[in-house]
Amino acid sequence: MLRQIELTCQNIIKHSKTFREELCNKILLFTFEGTNWIEHLGIAGPNKSSRTSDVIKSVKVLTAQFLCLTRMENWQQYLPDKYKNMNIFKDKSEFLNIKKQFVRYAFEEEHRRHHSSSAKEYVDDKENLLYLLMPDHKKFLYSVMERRKKEIHNQQKSGELDSYIMFQ
Length: 168
Description:
Elements: H1 2-15, H2 17-32, H3 36-41, H4 59-71, H5 81-84, H6 87-90, H7 92-114, H8 119-133, H9 137-158, H10 163-167
């Protein structure tokens, strides 16, 4: 079912120039709000917030759309003309920076929006967002935890272990 939703989103991206332009603008505004990049790109003036819920109704949906765009074969060809020749989309390290910043602000915004909601709802939403951004996040977390346990065990064997590490 998730694959079908992804294909539908990609189909809309392929065939709707307006949607593509709006999506790219939202991604860039969301990622670079408060920087001089926004004015440089010519997509918004200063002082206009681009992460609030009146502009981005759902951070999860925007994140899923960004993921769908970047999973498309030759996805750069679907960028609006004004973005096609920009180095931020051509250079892999520049684009990786966009993705990192986007993920950072997505988590911050989700946290801000759910800060006053009940803890259970927030945890559920956080798990869903983590799954969307990194489907194998639990496997990664467990591998880090196992590595850390081995490090502590080795320190314990060698006598280099302090009480704070044991507390962790």
